[in-house]
Write a structure and sequence with these properties.
The complex is a heterodimer of chains A (533) and B (270).
Chain A lengths: L3 E10 L2 E11 L4 E6 L5 H9 L6 E9 L2 E2 L5 H7 L4 E4 L13 H13 L3 H14 L18 H13 L5 E5 L7 H15 L4 E6 L2 H7 L2 E6 L2 E7 H7 L3 H10 L15 E11 L11 E12 L4 E5 L6 H8 L7 E6 L2 E2 L8 H4 L2 E4 L13 H6 L2 H4 L5 H11 L16 H13 L5 E5 L7 H18 L2 E6 L2 H7 L2 E6 L2 E7 H6 L4 H9 L5 H4 L8
Parallel strand pairs in A: 3-8, 3-9, 6-7, 7-8, 13-18, 13-19, 16-17, 17-18
Antiparallel strand pairs in A: 1-2, 1-4, 4-5, 9-10, 11-12, 11-14, 14-15, 19-20
Helix pairs in contact in A: 3-4, 3-5, 4-5, 6-19, 9-16, 14-15, 15-16
Chain B lengths: L2 H20 L34 H36 L4 H15 L2 H12 L3 H28 L2 H8 L4 H12 L1 H24 L11 H8 L7 H29 L8
Helix pairs in contact in B: 1-2, 1-10, 2-3, 2-5, 2-8, 2-10, 3-5, 4-5, 5-7, 5-8, 6-7, 8-9, 8-10, 9-10
The chains are: A alpha/beta (533), B mainly alpha (270).
Chain lengths: 533, 270
Amino acid sequence: MSLLSLRDLSLAIHGRPILSEISFDIAPGETFGLVGESGSGKSMTALAVMGLAPHGASTKGAADFLGRNLLTLPERAMTRLRGNEIGMIFQEPMTALNPMKTIGDQVAETLRVHMAASRAEAWAVAREKLARVGLPADRFPLTLYPHELSGGQRQRVAIAMAIALRPKLLIADEPTTALDVTTQAQILDLLKGLTEEDMALMLITHDLAVVAGMATHVAVMQGGRIVEQGATEPLFRARRQDYTRRLFAASEHRPNRTPQARDGTLLTVENAVREYTLPRPSAFAPHPKLRAVDGVSLTIRPGESLGLVGESGCGKSTLTRAILGLDPLQGGAIRLDGAEVTPGHTMPRALRARMQVVFQDPYGSFNPRHRVERLVAEPFHLTGRPKDARDRVAAALQEVGLAASDMDKFIHEFSGGQRQRIAIARALIIRPDLIVLDEAVSALDVRVRAQVLDLLARLQESHGLAYLFISHDLSVVRQVTDRVLVMKQGRIVEEGATETIFAAPKHPYTRALIAATPRIPDDWKENAHAPRT
Amino acid sequence: MRLPLLLGLALSAAALLAALVSLFWTPYDVTALAIADKLQPPSPAHWLGTDHFGRDIASMLMAGAQTSLAVALVAVGIGMGLGVPLGLLAAANRGSLIDEVVMRGNDLIFAFPSLVIAILITAVFGPSATNAIIAIGIFNIPVFARVTRGGALSLWTLDYIRAAEVAGKGRIRISAEHILPNILNLLIVQGTIQFSLGILAEAGLSYVGLGAQPPTPSWGRMLAEAQTMVTIAPHVALFPGLAIVLTVLGLNLMGDGLRDHLDPRLRRAA
């Protein structure tokens, strides 16, 4: 008998169809994976099940949960169900908790709402649940506030809230996407442990490797429909549907690239130190200092792809800002082709023009009020605006696979992948020697990411560009770099040729990173069926 | 567009139209006294009646709109002209000495009750419309500086600002090119609010005799002159009062409406 059974669930918002004929079953205690790219409708499916579909939505079909149809249940009954029999956790641990309440109060709140328990009883259960998710009260008192916890710890609190009443089903919407790989591995372990206590888990993710390691059944979604579903291993091995095959290929995609590195050195960083002054702990105490970058040295050769991996807070963004000449160093030096990189106006424009950058967020990277022509032409500020600027913008757009006519559009008319292409065109327009790619593909869907990686490989070949590829995603770094540096707490702990490091990591931290990266078992990838016709 | 915004636009436009028309034409001459016609109730000849000097109230309201709007407009101009650059400067140099000096200077101005200081300024430098403008304008500066700094700070964290820095642009240039256009919504809304407060402040100063001087018509002074006659001729006080209330209401509705209209987050998807 299944716990949750969806039959032909369709959902439309103001008449526009979002989901069509979604059907699947989740058995008690099983882990069910819902995979798809952004906009495929996976989160909307979860919201519809929870009765939290947005304003103006209408649903058809049935969602049977223990004999009750969730789609027709009145709101009062749904509120009793939510948090009680179905729990839910979200992607962003930074905003999922109320910053004004202690973690004990937040976990206890669910209990008090549903069980009318006394404060003391609720706190006792909260203490037990927080211990269950790995936050024992002796080290993490219930009186802590969310800002005193890390992202992974906050996600644990969110899980404790969701499981406080022992729900029969936990819906986890991209629960680890915002977390570092090692933290992700711990949270996934925790979720796995919970399903062994007879709780079913609906795991929504874009990451095939996460699903491969977690779910017994999987459904692949595209455009509001389920393309394919079945038991995980056979589905992964067979890949019967074209879309599933393409997703697979994209997640394993290796751009076709040959090492381009030439002799000489383009960029050197010598013993770079970057400190931040923190607020005084008390009125007369000295300012404590945070050393975000602690004696880092590295070199990049012309035409080389250098990877820099590390988890959030390891200092890679701070190092990037220093390399780009945006922040001063407190020690050491950065040289670009022999000339010293200095912050702000002190750095000559001609030198600055040899470095450009592509950022992570395709939505925050452009002034929404300017047209693409002006956006892409911005770096001409460094070189002087040439007479044929408009033609060069057109050429740059064509180089990244967009049309010259796109330059008269505004940025909101483009998708995330197209925006990253425009960001690359902006970096390319003044023909720099080095492009810093700061998590440049991390926000993209797998298929778009594969295309952008191909584009980067092609441009490197045609322009002899050097890349500094900064990422927390080891699999991507492995696919596109010649050499890799591993950074931890402001220091480089290991460096070497990419393949050597991934094949035989020496430093325990590198080993832990590689071990924590979810992957699809190698033997599942073999013997894929030829397309059935 | 929703009803409050339309109503606000209509009321504000009516005040503006009255002021503009009065530049060329008013039903009667507002400086000519006709004691024989004093304190007449509304009639076909004098739509809103006459005051104790026999002047036509409708004509005086039209000419008074000119004073009110001009004072409020220039006061907002002073506030924006100085406050916005200061706010941009403070945000661009966040945490620096400049930021501290600008913002603490603002706090200093904020610490004084604005109307009392305005009275002080006009009392020291002599009552006139010009001094009223300056007094009201000074208190607009910190308002705009704070709004600007707040809006600008949230933009300074975005990647397109980083990209502009990498393109070698300085802070002043980034502020003008990337920050200012993106906080314009905020400033327009704050501008309409300060505008309506400016009208109130002008009326208040004129009421106590420190604003526009006779014979320049002013809504505030019309009220002041009417108050002794409220029992015998209530219309003389009623109409200037209504003019102030409706104009301020209209501007506030317009400000609120514009904020909803210009902010995509508050616009519900159709």
